[in-house]
Specification:
Blueprint: E1 2-5, E2 8-11, H1 20-27, E3 46-49, E4 52-55, E5 68-70, H2 72-75, H3 83-90, H4 100-115, H5 135-141, H6 152-174
Parallel strand pairs: 1-5
Antiparallel strand pairs: 1-2, 3-4, 3-5
Helix pairs in contact: 3-6
InterPro entries: 2Fe-2S-bd (IPR002888), 2Fe-2S-bd_dom_sf (IPR036884), 2Fe-2S_ferredoxin-like_sf (IPR036010), 2Fe-2S_ferredoxin-type (IPR001041), 2Fe2S_fd_BS (IPR006058), Aldehyde_Oxdr_Iron-Sulfur (IPR052914), Beta-grasp_dom_sf (IPR012675)
Organism: Novosphingobium anseongense
Keywords: Iron, Metal-binding, Oxidoreductase
Length: 175
């Protein structure tokens, strides 16, 4: 039994009690996902499973059999940053950087959720076929990822700018 992490096959651990977070950090040495609260309250451990954001501290590794896990290490490299990574740098979306990998993975998943039409608690019109990423919508959708340093304004700006660029590219491609 196995699953894929950042394009590499990984054998499921023998111990079914190992969390995905512990497997990533301790066995695979992928330390981007952080162990913040270890209770699913802070979002520092957020990774993508089949493109959806998941708290890896609350996910058992055995639950990932046959699935594709993407960590911050799988999104970009120092020489070829993912657009959200570059935006976080440009807009000062981090201070200490502890929450940054989880914030970026969560933002990637959040944008995919938005594009699929999944509403949030502040979505004004559920009948809209295309949801827009307003300031309130973005903050609500990212509310599960905390930043103790207070870099939320930079985080929001980085995500909003990247989404606008992607949205513009989608509209241009549709023409």
């Amino acid at each position: 039994m196995s699953f894929t992490v950042n394009g590499q096959d990984v054998t499921t651990p023998d111990d079914p009690r190992i969390s995905l977070l512990d497997l990533l950090r301790e066995r695979l040495h992928l330390t981007g996902a952080k162990k913040g609260c270890d209770q699913g309250a802070c979002g520092a451990c957020t990774v993508l499973i089949d493109g959806e954001r998941v708290l890896s501290c609350l996910t058992l590794a055995v639950q990932c059999v046959g699935r594709e896990i993407t960590t911050i290490e799988g999104l970009g490299t120092p020489d070829d940053l993912h657009p959200l990574q570059a935006a976080f740098v440009e807009h000062d979306g981090f201070q200490c950087g502890y929450c940054t990998p989880g914030q970026i993975c969560s933002a990637v998943g959040m944008i995919a959720e938005l594009r699929r039409g999944g509403p949030s608690h502040v979505t004004r019109d559920l009948a809209d076929e295309v949801l827009t990423l307003t300031h309130d919508e973005l903050r609500e959708r990212m509310s599960g990822n905390l930043c103790r340093c207070g870099a939320h304004n930079g985080i929001v700006e980085a995500i909003a700018t990247t989404f606008e660029a992607w949205d513009h590219d989608l509209h241009e491609a549709a023409r």
